[in-house]
Write a structure and sequence with these properties.
The protein has 1 helix and 29 strands. By secondary structure, the chain is mainly beta. The longest helix has 5 residues.
Length: 307
């Protein structure tokens, strides 16, 4: 653990909306809004800047002992003068282990674009379990907006993006994947940008892109993170959670409608105070709506930060 007593390692630098505290390899965003009690206090000139202190152990963060309790200082957030969360450290993540999921409450259209920062654990791709990690598939409407790895055990590096319902699964005859995005272990287990763009008919995983068949069908249900919402032919609903690897990590998710940002999810830990709201559990905060989105499944998300 890194404790604040190593004063020689402290260095403060300015940024556009915050001060940045450097403690060894830790980069901590400070805010002029106090979001926890107790909080880290840093005086810069005649101003007091604050860092978030949480009474939970978070790896790869600064740790401070206060009244016999060891606090983690993720220092990952910037707040405006109205105490709204407006920015987050790009290295924080929400880790799902196959039982947790987030409902975005957003139904995709013909012009939806989603950009996710994510990675997967490096354990072996399982031969059983569910392979879809994002989206919605509406079998009743013969429509889909989703991404999955291949169903076979050998297809753990084959990424299949969909903005229509695959003809081989009963969808319209014109809907085909035209192959998959072939990635490798490094791309799968390191943070990458994944894009599904229905407006411009393409998908991207890291540095690799893939053209898609044009979309002319839509769904009536919302996108899911960490799995896929499936609407069956009889109209019943099932949430199928990604479980082919032991863990999936999401760093952020942005959803656009006709190039207008309508969701910007960032991970937030239990106990973080945003305005008058105290985050009840590890989950996602939407910067656009200023709204919390919690786990809709079982167990708990794991909150963390990369070094």
């Amino acid at each position: 653990m890194r404790f604040i007593i190593f004063l020689l390692l402290l260095f403060i630098s300015p940024s556009a909306d915050a001060r940045i505290l450097h403690v060894g390899s830790n980069i901590i965003k400070l805010s002029q809004t106090k979001t926890t009690s107790p909080a880290l206090h840093i005086k810069v000139d005649n101003e007091i800047w604050y860092g978030t202190m949480l009474p939970t152990f978070i790896q790869n963060t600064l740790h401070i002992r206060h009244n016999t309790v060891v606090y983690s200082v993720p220092g990952c957030y910037v707040f405006d003068e109205n105490k709204r969360l407006i920015d987050a450290n790009e290295n924080i993540y929400l880790k799902g282990t196959g039982t947790q999921w987030i409902d975005t409450n957003h139904i995709p259209t013909l012009v939806t674009r989603t950009e996710m920062e994510l990675k997967f654990s490096d354990d072996e791709y399982k031969g059983t379990g569910y392979e879809g990690f994002f989206g919605i598939g509406d079998l009743n409407a013969n429509s889909a907006y989703s991404i999955n790895f291949g169903g076979a055990k050998s297809q753990g590096y084959n990424v299949f993006p969909w903005i229509c319902h695959y003809k081989g699964g009963g969808g319209p005859s014109w809907c085909n994947s035209f192959g998959s995005i072939l990635i490798d272990k490094n791309l799968k287990t390191s943070k990458q940008t994944v894009i599904l763009d229905a407006k411009n008919n393409y998908a991207q995983y890291g540095t690799r892109q893939h053209s898609l068949q044009g979309r002319n069908t839509t769904e009536s249900y919302a996108i899911v993170l960490f799995g896929t919402r499936v609407i069956k032919k009889d109209g019943s609903e099932e949430i199928r959670l990604y479980s082919r690897n032991d863990a999936m990590y999401i760093y952020s998710t942005k959803i656009y409608e006709d190039d207008v940002l309508i969701r910007h999810f960032v991970p937030v830990p239990s106990g973080l105070k945003i305005g008058d709201f105290i985050v009840p559990e590890n989950g996602m905060w939407d910067i656009v709506e200023q709204k919390f989105y919690g786990n809709m499944g079982t167990g708990e998300f794991i909150y963390g930060i990369d070094e």
